[in-house]
């Protein structure tokens, strides 16, 4: 009995190394296959909605989808088995994503209502989030995210200003242009204002009266000018964080008192006067 | 008599603490309710203009609107009562906004003309400005505003250049394209040029002749290139102000000779050798 | 005879002070009137092309236009008379602009052909360039222009890259989409590519085939990404020039050897060892 | 025999100087002619596709095209003859481009199928790449390219994030808007999302339902905000590389102790006190 349990324990450890680790060949291979299946799965979801393609290859799509679902199901079970605190994984963000990502096909056996069906199957796209947990990507955009988080406060303040402006200008345009020009309600006018201020400019609703066109011109020039603000915020933040990183890499460490921000040319610690080691 | 007056005085002081203060629980609660009602009010103004919604829930909308108006009316009166110099508040920017924000519903009892009605009710959106006076927001976007004000001169010079360009190019397009393509007058052509230069591109007016399309291409590339200018101005300003702020926070002041730009870790003044105070 | 000549000489000098100077009250007044007339003139040119407006106020427009033309004519003659080297002024850029700006109305007496007429009258818009010579504006955007000129080389290299890309992608789209989608020739396809890459997006020509839409997506993401390049160039340049200006203002001047780039805290010249004056 | 071979050798050397060199008058003239012919060739390809123009000047276009093709053919042969390692050139990127650039006209003699014909002739546009090898341009955009390559990693991470967002939002819009609004499949919806997020905004597909318009608004504001990211990355990189270049150009090298970061005006090494060489 004991030997059987330890055999299972060995299997668990091996599985853990393959699924969670990236140092062994099997671990890297597993990660690659997972990545490929995620992309294939996303491609399948997209192609299913292309009418001509779905009619022609419906059976193949369903078959491939089942293959992927079963693979992800096995992966999900193995992840639970091989981890020490399974509930911590199950209730984590990526654990829930993993679960939702395998459900759609099983659910599609029960729900036959077409619209519900479409929504459930679209859930499979959440598999894209699995990539964020993938060792290949998780470490990558670290510094970028830091800069964005550092300048988050200012960006939110800016977004808030943009929104207030859009509500006020949108309402003004609703009064000026009226329903004949397509500005049928204030929410629609705000939608138009966002479309214009962000320089997207669909053209589905456009001002017709001279006054409306004049206000629109002001909005556009304003939008063209204030795009500088978020850019400025993020740029300053990235420049600052890079400057800091650059300085940190140059820091010299004093073996005596621990101070580590001496200039590159310093020969003596400014704090305790101890001579600095050349290669510290 | 005296006791009654002092009772009123106590009521005034309590009210002042709740309305103008943010340190007590009641003060914070009041601020939160005010914020919620402002947003609800804005939502109501927007929903009223959505035809389908207004027909279905007309009475409820009017009822809610009256509740909000009465709340703001009481708030307005309490603000006047509880402040020491009431006229200073009444004639201030936010005082006028507060007044205008409560008038529409009362005025709507007298004005029954539909178009006038729409404009008056839209005035309620000015309540959004009340938020700027709200303690939660007033302190927030300080630094952002400073950077924008500091680079205002250059941005105006840039905007002026954009406007001159748009007048000249717009007139050129009017001559080149003519009325058949939708360029019916110079103001319309200038409007088109602004739409194009700011990369909005509605598509309601587009050049048709080869020469017109060639000029349009130049305008677009120009617009794509010169967007760099406001961005550059604001970015440089934000970077500069952050760099300055960063340095200021690190400055230590020497009590002996007055030098105040020692590094954060310095223990002795680099100028006179006097020991620096820890908390200076 | 001599007294008469000197009287004319006095008139010339007074005129010179008023027209070219900005220190006297009369000089500033003249500049303001000139500025007002330039803007009025531009407004007139624009309003003339608005069909409804021109029919209603045709005579008033023509009258005002003649007033402005005669004022500018007198100004042109006075400028020639009051300057010492008249031909230098006449042949300068602003001299030619001044001349062209007064010709249209006189020419309109001879040319009655409608289309020619429109073009000649549009020449009056060149009066906008007169503003650039105006003391109020000429000094303003100095630093901005310097930054742009300094980064001109890189911007041209970038524009060149954009153009090459547009020719190649435009041709590719012509082959992929063909004439049914509106991509009727390579120049039109290049025009479409510029419209798309610069994120203008008129929507007058849009890809219909899946492959075309895929390429369009790549172009858009590319355009979205490479807008960073001119912005980065200009921003870096502005930041650099401001940093330099900031440093220059701090420079200390050595009275002994003339070196003027000592750091703010230096007490002795690094070049000759002479003590630096506190207030230099 | 030997004299003949050496005569050929002299011809080879002379040709090499003209084709590959830029120091002699003949070398510069050759480069200019080549540049002119490349631009003329690109212009011809473009004009051929303009229906009206091609019908009118078909023979002239074909004649000019043959002249250019023959010139490029001779240039190609001379390049092979005059270089020491011909196969290295033939198999290089620019060698292959040079070959492809002359083939279309010869191939057009054999392929008479119209569509194939169009594609083959479009290959002539690859001649644009020849410019990159042109001495006038090859040295130009060096620093620009370096900055882009240095920030490539972050830009790719950013692009990846944009793509993931577009797939998720596109699918959401497909479910929300449905086929009646033009969102006929997920790939089309993703195409719409890219068009919107990059602020291009063609307007060929636009949301109609209130919920769809609300999501679209969020996408637009998001797109407006995150354009800051690539800009920030590239700007910080350009600023950094310029700062570095600026510092490097000022570095003086001390022959005694090896320190190489003296200011431009320093006469003595700050480290060892040795006099600095004027031209180091």
From TrEMBL, chains A, B, C, D:
<dbReference type="InterPro" id="IPR027359">
    <property type="entry name" value="Volt_channel_dom_sf"/>
</dbReference>
<keyword id="KW-0472">Membrane</keyword>
<protein>
    <submittedName>
        <fullName>Ion transporter</fullName>
    </submittedName>
</protein>
<feature type="transmembrane region" description="Helical">
    <location>
        <begin position="32"/>
        <end position="55"/>
    </location>
</feature>
<keyword id="KW-0407">Ion channel</keyword>
<keyword id="KW-0851">Voltage-gated channel</keyword>
<feature type="transmembrane region" description="Helical">
    <location>
        <begin position="61"/>
        <end position="78"/>
    </location>
</feature>
<dbReference type="InterPro" id="IPR028325">
    <property type="entry name" value="VG_K_chnl"/>
</dbReference>
<feature type="domain" description="Ion transport">
    <location>
        <begin position="28"/>
        <end position="240"/>
    </location>
</feature>
<keyword id="KW-0630">Potassium</keyword>
<keyword id="KW-0631">Potassium channel</keyword>
<feature type="transmembrane region" description="Helical">
    <location>
        <begin position="188"/>
        <end position="208"/>
    </location>
</feature>
<keyword id="KW-0812">Transmembrane</keyword>
<keyword id="KW-0633">Potassium transport</keyword>
<feature type="transmembrane region" description="Helical">
    <location>
        <begin position="155"/>
        <end position="176"/>
    </location>
</feature>
<keyword id="KW-0406">Ion transport</keyword>
<dbReference type="GO" id="GO:0005249">
    <property type="term" value="F:voltage-gated potassium channel activity"/>
</dbReference>
<keyword id="KW-1133">Transmembrane helix</keyword>
<dbReference type="InterPro" id="IPR005821">
    <property type="entry name" value="Ion_trans_dom"/>
</dbReference>
<keyword id="KW-0813">Transport</keyword>
<dbReference type="GO" id="GO:0008076">
    <property type="term" value="C:voltage-gated potassium channel complex"/>
</dbReference>
<feature type="transmembrane region" description="Helical">
    <location>
        <begin position="90"/>
        <end position="112"/>
    </location>
</feature>
<dbReference type="Pfam" id="PF00520">
    <property type="entry name" value="Ion_trans"/>
</dbReference>
<feature type="transmembrane region" description="Helical">
    <location>
        <begin position="214"/>
        <end position="239"/>
    </location>
</feature>
<dbReference type="GO" id="GO:0001508">
    <property type="term" value="P:action potential"/>
</dbReference>
């Amino acid at each position: 009995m004991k030997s059987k349990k330890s055999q299972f324990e060995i299997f668990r450890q091996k599985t853990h190394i393959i699924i969670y680790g990236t140092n062994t060949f099997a671990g890297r291979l597993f990660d690659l296959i997972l990545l490929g299946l995620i992309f294939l799965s996303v491609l399948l979801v997209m192609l299913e909605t292309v009418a001509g393609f779905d009619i022609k290859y419906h059976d193949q799509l369903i078959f491939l989808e089942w293959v992927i679902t079963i693979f992800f199901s096995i992966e999900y079970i193995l992840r639970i088995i091989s981890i020490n605190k399974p509930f911590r994984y199950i209730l984590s963000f990526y654990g829930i994503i993993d679960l939702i990502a395998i459900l759609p096909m099983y659910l599609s056996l029960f729900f036959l209502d077409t619209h519900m069906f479409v929504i459930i199957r679209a859930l499979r796209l959440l598999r894209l989030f699995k990539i964020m947990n993938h060792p290949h990507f998780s470490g990558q955009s670290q510094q970028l995210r830091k800069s964005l988080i550092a300048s988050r406060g200012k960006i939110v303040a800016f977004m808030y200003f943009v929104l207030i402006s859009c509500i006020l200008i949108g309402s003004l345009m609703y009064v000026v242009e009226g329903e004949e020009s397509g500005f049928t309600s204030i929410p629609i006018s705000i939608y138009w204002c966002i479309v214009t201020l962000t320089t997207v400019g669909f053209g589905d609703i456009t001002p017709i009266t001279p006054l409306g066109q004049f206000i629109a011109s002001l909005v556009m020039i304003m939008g063209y000018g204030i795009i500088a603000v978020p850019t400025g915020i993020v740029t300053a933040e990235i420049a600052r964080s890079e400057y800091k990183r650059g300085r940190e890499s140059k820091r010299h460490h004093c073996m005596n008192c621990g101070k580590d921000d001496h200039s590159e040319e310093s020969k003596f610690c400014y704090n305790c006067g101890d001579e600095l080691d050349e290669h510290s």
